[in-house]
Design a protein that fits this description.
- By secondary structure, the chain is α/β, with parallel strands linked by helices.
- The protein folds into 2 domains: about 10-135, Molybdopterin cofactor biosynthesis C (MoaC) domain (Alpha-Beta Plaits, 2-Layer Sandwich); about 140-295, Molybdenum Cofactor Biosythetic Enzyme, Chain A (3-Layer(aba) Sandwich).
- It has 12 helices and 10 strands.
- It has a 6-stranded mixed β-sheet, with helices on both faces. The protein has a 4-stranded antiparallel β-sheet with strand order 2-3-1-4, with helices on one face.
- The chain is elongated.
- The two termini are about 45 Å apart.
Amino acid sequence: MINVSNKITTLRFARAGGTIKTRKDVIQKIVNDDIEKGDVLEVSRVAGIQAAKKTSELLIFCHNLPLEWVDISFHLDGDTIHVKAEAEAIARTGVEMEALTAASTALLNIYDMLKPLDKEMEISTIRLLEKTGGKSDFDDDFDHPVKAAVVRISDSVADGTREDQSTSAVEDVLDHFNVEVAQKVVIRSGREEVAKKIEELADSSSYHLIFTIGATGLNDGDIVAEITKELIDYEIPGIPEAMREFGRNRTPYANYSRTAAGVRGETIIINLPGSSRGAKESVHALFPGLKHALRMMNKGKLRKME
């Protein structure tokens, strides 16, 4: 299976369809409820719904999803029965396979119930009709690259006594979401040095995003959140909320990370926790939706950086 633990949870929807052809006199028997095995459409509807719920048992690489809703509908047209299946879930991966499985099973059940009457039935055009809620629905495309600066705040990393794994972890995630890390810098955790570096980067008009890593804990020197709040023009409270919620689902330690986020000029500044895992998960919590914030700030476009 593909690991989807770093994906954000969104409302997922899918619609699939297919057709089965039989004789017109058989269609009439369905309409008249004159089929020996029973109500063809209602039984097939139940079969499709049940199949959707068992998709992960049938298809090896499908995840077991908490389906919120499944429905099957039918349309009879001449010698053809059109089947549509819809599925919805609040999950990290899509429900297209559940919808396709539901439609396919409903069609197979129709075939099974009608086979004593027609040996020449044909099932065809099973396909995905619609899918929403995935990464592409939230990933804004721009004419030029999103540029970011990453500021690692750590005395031990600055002194060379500790390897900086966190910056590399963040850079990997940003690269996955097509964000160019145009500047990386390591500084000590002094108030003046941190404030000066953040201000310098934000006012350079060179970066859409500035990520600080570290100094978000409960020690006296963990003051990056306070510094950020002093420097920004206004806060974006939903960013720390999203990072904490995402992290809290993985470790209770996420509750004790003090972060802030906001806008200075035309740049969004975001504090990330110092651990490589925490920093990486926090960035995953924000993308791809964070790009939409940049679009909102710039009236639908992304400004070109110097």
